[in-house]
User: What shape does this take?
Amino acid sequence: MNTKDKYGRTLAYVYLEDGTFLNAEVVKQGYGLAYRYFFFKYFDEFKQYETEARE
Assistant: This one.
């Protein structure tokens, strides 16, 4: 699994103390995008969240 993007930034899944999946929430609210440079575990879900956020 890649832990860095092409610019050397850390790639990680972040969960808050209450169990909220922060990565998904950021995309759902339109503040982030699904990372497209390689497939990852939640790729399909994040693409859907991104589409819904644009509507």
